[in-house]
Amino acid sequence: MLWVVAVGFFMQTLDSTIVNTALPPIAKSLGESPLRMQSVIIGYSLTMAVVIPASGWLADRFGTRRVFQTAIVLFVIGSILCALANRLDMLVAARVVQGVGGAMLLPVGRLAVLRTFPQDRYLQALSFVAIPGMVGPLIGPTLGGWLTETFSWHWVFLINVPVGVIGGIATIIYMPNSKVSGIGRFDTSGYLLLALFMVAISFSLDGLAELGFEHATVLMLLIGALAMLTAYGLHATRHPEPLFSLNLFKIHTFSVGLLGNLFARIGNGGMPFLIPLVLQVCLGYSPIEAGLMMLPITFAGMLSKRLATTLIERHGYRRVLVTNTFLVGIAIASFALISPGRPIWIMLIQLALFGAVNSIQFTGMNTITLKDLGRAGASSGNSLLSMVQMLSMSLAVTSAGALLQTFRTRLGVAQELANPLPAFHATFICVGLITSASAWIFMQLTAERLATDTIGHAGEM
């Protein structure tokens, strides 16, 4: 069963990165501008953010095997539809189908492991299935570039089909269909309020860029999003079993960690979208070369995970997160120095440094968010963290795309034939400033050295 869950993790994490290096060839094939393709990523990540809160209840109600198998089927169908798309709107719709399946793979798979293995073997089992989840982002950009150049961009999606078929068959054979008896009613009202909030806030940020909304429409979407979030807060105070209890926010470390995750990731979460794009559009890299350039980020991130534990043990969460958030912001802004004549070895060092501080950031943020929840709030808190992480990924790409489009217009490079490198430079600086500004959130932590027995198990997601 561990291999079954591992396959699901691999598919979900691979697809979160494999598309990035293929965006320019996809844009050319569909007759679109490569700088207006962020909806392909947003459609996937936003759908995952919307569906994740319901995945746990669905698994409790219908059983882990049935929901996990349904997730794989939806993921495979979505992949086939992506490969068949001949218009951008068709591709985005297919990515939404993919996102529905992908949203259930990770939490339901983790839940299946929890219910199958005894507590003393849980950590070992979860570590096993997490390995393919780490391999996916590692090989995703390079594999995406190689498939695009060797075959066509369609194979970036079709590669999921054989993996999904094998995983679906294995799910029927090996995964038990564990359910929870006497499960309460799903908080449909609360779920709809949160879902509408996430969709409205994402559309409002993308409204002035790719979607071309009027300012009044964007303003109404922002007001509507804030109204939905406020309505959920009022709803959760009187509902006996809300989707996410507001009592979670009485835990100081959880509140700070969750908000820090949201705003820090809005900054650094756009980099996997921006870096392959600037390399191909402005510097003339091929898809596979752009994918290979992402490897220093991944390798440096893996090597720095142990360093994160050492730093937090020595200096405490507050000092490490505040300092490191500024370093991540500076590392992002430094990409404004990219130019065609710059030596490649300097860029490789730059990418590695960004990967190292980014990994330390993820480890620190995730651990501080979950460490004080206790057993009673662990499931709900982890689900809320997963939702916020996927929402921030969507908002990150949306914000990066909106900034890029704005600077192209303001700097006079809106014409398709003009080199948009100055717009990328300005976007990197703004994204770096957004990230650095989120350090203020981590300043609210208590300046103390906290126990770090759980550091390193929170993962990169």
TrEMBL record:
Protein's UniProt name: DHA2 family efflux MFS transporter permease subunit
Subcellular location: Cell membrane
Record-linked InterPro entries: EmrB-like, MFS, MFS_dom, MFS_trans_sf
CDD domains, alphabetized: MFS_LmrB_MDR_like
Pfam families, per database record: MFS_1 (PF07690)
Record organism: Pararobbsia silviterrae
GO molecular function term, any single one: transmembrane transporter activity
Alphabetically ordered keywords of this record: Cell membrane, Membrane, Transmembrane, Transmembrane helix, Transport
Gene Ontology cellular component terms for the protein in this record: plasma membrane
Ranges for domain Major facilitator superfamily (MFS) profile: 1-450
Source domain of life: Bacteria
Membrane disposition: Multi-pass membrane protein
Signal peptide (from-to): none
Segments traversing the membrane: 40-59, 66-86, 92-113, 125-147, 153-176, 188-209, 215-234, 246-267, 273-299, 320-338, 344-363, 384-404, 424-443
Chief location: membrane
NCBIfam families: efflux_EmrB, PRK10504.1
